[in-house]
Amino acid sequence: MKGVAVMGLALFGQSTAYQSSLGSNTATACSGKFSPISAADYISAMNPGWNLGNTLDAVPNEGSWNNPPVVPATFDDVKAAGFKSVRIPVTYTDHFMGKSPDWTIDPAWLQRVSDVVDMALDRGLYVITNIHHDSWEWADVTASAVNLTMIEEKIYRSWIQIGQALGCKSSKVAFEPINEPPANTAQDGLELNKINELFLKALAASGGFNAQRVVTLAGGGMDSIKTSQWFKAPTGYSNPWAIQYHYYSPYDFIFQAWGKTIWGSEADKQSMEADFANIRGNFTNIPLVIGEFEANTLLEPAARRKYIDFAVRTARKYNTSVILWDNGDGALDRATHTWRDPYLIDIILNAAKGVSNSLSDSTTDGLAPEQSSSAYIFHKVGEDVMDEAVNFLLNGNNFKSIKTSDGTVLRSPEDYSTSAGTITVKKEFLSKYLSPSASPGSRVNLTVSFSAGADASVEIVQWDVPTLDSTISKAVSGSDLLIPITWKGLYKLAAVKMLRNDGVCLFDDWTQYLGPLQQARGTYSSNWDRDGAHVILKESAIAQVISSKMPTIFTFEFYPRVAGNAVNYTLTI
């Protein structure tokens, strides 16, 4: 592996490959040497990885969505954190300058892609790059009246040109044919197998080192079940290959749908492990990489950290590498060069190495009426300060130390005591930050260190029930409704209950059969959101109220998820 890294550095910047004839079939010729690497060694070496999401894959152009054009410092941050690779999604839809049969891609765009790849390579990172949102822009094989001839031609011509542009990059660069290509039937799966073959055929024709380059092939939707059912590898090509799939399950937890903010039961773990074991069992000797996985950042952090830890540990158990999805609003704050949850990043890095992490405990029972979390010590305004017990899943480790965010080390037994997996923080220490009359808000963070693995965070929060500037209005179609709010604790919205005046759930009436924290709840982003000084009812929720012709009560629920920590807003007709 050392030889690969050294040769990669020797090849940086030797882009004799990049030609003005990208629209032609001229095969790229490279100077220098290429250090071949097996797919198994590549996938192992790039673990764990990070996604440059919502950037070059934005539509219509880089910078069109929530991130500005990427700069080299972003890759410095990724490297410094400990990630070994970066996946660079690229959308080409709006960069075609010509039509059939050439489908000429703007050379300036190909140069930009090449430059960004070099930014990552210059920092010693492995790189996977692809064709991304084109999968639903023009390459959807499931679309009605689909033109498969056009899709096949365009895929082939695109990879000819991408291959020519990137053909002389080092063996640290791998290619992925297309992101999450839709597939609903076995026939769709056959067509995607053909697209994989056209991709390899184009690489072989594009020249450079591309016939030796590692590729990660795609099955239907990059879904593990559809891939297991329908994927068949092309034959007759020399590229070392792996299979890439994505993992966003269970949907309700990952995307904070229907009020689900709880995860970690034995059933939850068994379900995930069954998914990983199934695809590994179907591709026993094939290198596997989970090219995207994540969980919504608004989730209760102990549950989210447990989910990510178990995902990475279970992937390792089944010899699968992982790449964290990050759309720019998730893991890394690119503007400030800080990780929004550095504890989560350390959990990933340790779990990928096989080091056990100790984790904050939290509610795992989906039928529970309230949700506890040891990622916080919550103290309600008006109540006396008491000793607080904080529970951890030690996972074979021992407590080592506790310190505040300003570096003050807590003393035992004066400030805290320990027993098995529980730390009891004394009221005398907590009274430095909390009181019955203290203003609501986050007061201090405690960092708990262990004999091995990642540290854990305990945020001490004084809270009260938030207040809305108004509590009723008439439903008006055509836009989101922004409701001014005064936060009193955490800037986090846990869920929104949406119940019509006739007792029927505004959306998905079947949620009445779920646990009490999920019944009648809407879905984050689709039905509700929050933004600075507002909670937001999305246009879809307002339209549903109007369509139902029924006044609806929206109950905004906050952390801690306990009785009474919620406020109501009514939309009338």
Please tell me about this protein's structure.
The protein is α/β, with parallel strands linked by helices. It has 14 helices and 26 strands. The strands form 6 sheets. Strands 4-3-2-1-8-7-6-5 form an 8-stranded parallel β-sheet, with helices on both faces. Strands 11-13-16-15 form a 4-stranded antiparallel β-sheet. A 4-stranded mixed β-sheet has the order 12-18-17-14, with no helix packed on it. A hairpin with a 7-residue loop joins strand 25 and strand 26 (566-572).
Quaternary structure state of the chains depicted: single chain
What is the typical, i.e. mean, pLDDT? 95
- The portion of residues assigned to helices is 25-40%
Report the radius of gyration as a whole number of Å.
26 Å
Q: Tally the helices.
A: 14
List keywords for this structure.
about 575 residues; alpha/beta; eight-stranded parallel β-sheet
Write the layout of secondary structure elements.
Elements: H1 2-11, H2 39-45, E1 49-51, H3 72-81, E2 85-88, H4 107-121, E3 126-130, H5 134-137, H6 148-166, E4 173-176, H7 186-206, E5 215-218, H8 224-230, E6 241-247, H9 251-254, H10 266-282, E7 288-293, H11 301-317, E8 320-324, E9 332-333, E10 338-339, H12 342-353, E11 359-360, E12 376-380, E13 388-393, E14 399-404, E15 416-419, E16 422-425, H13 427-430, E17 441-450, E18 456-463, E19 467-468, E20 472-474, E21 481-486, E22 493-500, E23 528-531, E24 534-537, H14 539-548, E25 552-558, E26 566-572
Parallel strand pairs: 1-2, 1-8, 2-3, 3-4, 5-6, 6-7, 7-8, 12-18, 20-26
Antiparallel strand pairs: 9-10, 11-13, 13-16, 14-17, 15-16, 17-18, 19-21, 21-24, 22-25, 23-24, 25-26
